[in-house]
Design goal:
Helix 2 runs parallel beside helix 3, helix 5 packs parallel to helix 6 and helix 6 packs parallel to helix 8. By secondary structure, the protein is α/β, with parallel strands linked by helices. An eight-stranded parallel beta sheet has the order 1-8-7-6-5-4-3-2. Helix content is 36%, strand content 18%. The C terminus is likely disordered. Bound molecules: D-xylitol-5-phosphate (DX5) and zinc ion (ZN). Zinc ion binds next to strand 2.
């Protein structure tokens, strides 16, 4: 587990008429990654952003672009997102019958590969793919919309994934996404999360700097216990 908890604001909640300014703002406020929620209206009941927006974000920020693909048949679109400038691409375990093929393709494209678990998906499903990933994303809301409430029942899952990663000895980030705030983020950091996605709690606050500082302070406080877990 890395020392520093990384914060990844999700542009789903940003003012997209001012994407460039929004990204510069959160970058200056100390954001570590930019999270991009891609929705296809099939895997989730909402449609959001595609490669065009990833490319626009790429022109505006040098932060890693962390692309969360909530889409069916992700394989078809991996090259497009890679070319658009994604640094990390995460596919849902539930969205493809050929997960390993998708993960291998992401790495072949020179990107970091992530696997995402819906709230109902047990962590045991990771057993045969951990060696294929650089990141595991545990969703703590049902995918499809920002601004939902954190599901505390996901905490044991986060802890179990943390233990699984540590036991494996592999270098894999553990990211948590959904309902993260200064109140909920410390709980998931204590459970072992390395990366926190935050939509509403960052972009919903007019003062992004204050919002990121609050998340940073809350997760720093939670860190000693997380470090103690190794
Ligand atoms: C949910 C998305 C999340 C969402 C998080 O489908 O994967 O990344 O944007 O938004 P908040 O932080 O508002 O719950
Ligand atoms: Zn997301």
């Amino acid at each position: 587990m890395q020392n520093k908890v990384r914060i990844a604001p999700s542009i789903l909640a940003a003012d997209l008429t001012r994407l460039g300014e929004e990204l510069r703002d959160v970058e200056q406020a100390g954001a570590d990654w930019i999270h991009v929620d891609v929705m296809d209206g099939r895997f989730v009941p909402n449609i959001s952003l595609g490669p065009v927006v990833v490319a626009a974000a790429r022109r505006t920020t040098s932060l890693p672009l962390d692309v969360h693909l909530m889409i069916e048949e992700p394989y078809k679109y991996l090259t497009a997102f890679a070319n658009a400038g994604a640094d990390i691409m995460s596919v849902h375990l539930e969205a493809t019958t050929h997960l390993k093929r998708n993960l291998a393709e992401i790495r072949r494209l020179g990107k970091r590969a992530g696997v995402v678990l819906n709230p109902h998906t047990p962590e045991e499903a990771l057993r045969y793919v951990l060696e294929d990933v650089d990141l595991v994303l545990v969703l703590t809301v049902n995918p499809g919309f920002g601004g939902q409430s954190f599901m505390p029942s996901m905490l044991p899952k986060i802890q179990a994934v943390r233990e699984m990663i540590d036991r494996s000895g592999l270098v894999v980030d553990l990211e948590v996404d959904g309902g993260m705030s200064p109140e909920t983020a410390p709980l998931v950091v204590q459970a072992g999360a390395d990366v926190i996605v935050a939509g509403e709690s960052v972009f919903g606050n007019h003062n992004h700097n204050e919002a990121i500082s609050a998340l940073r302070a809350a997760t720093e406080l939670a860190r000693p216990r997380a470090q103690g877990m190794k």
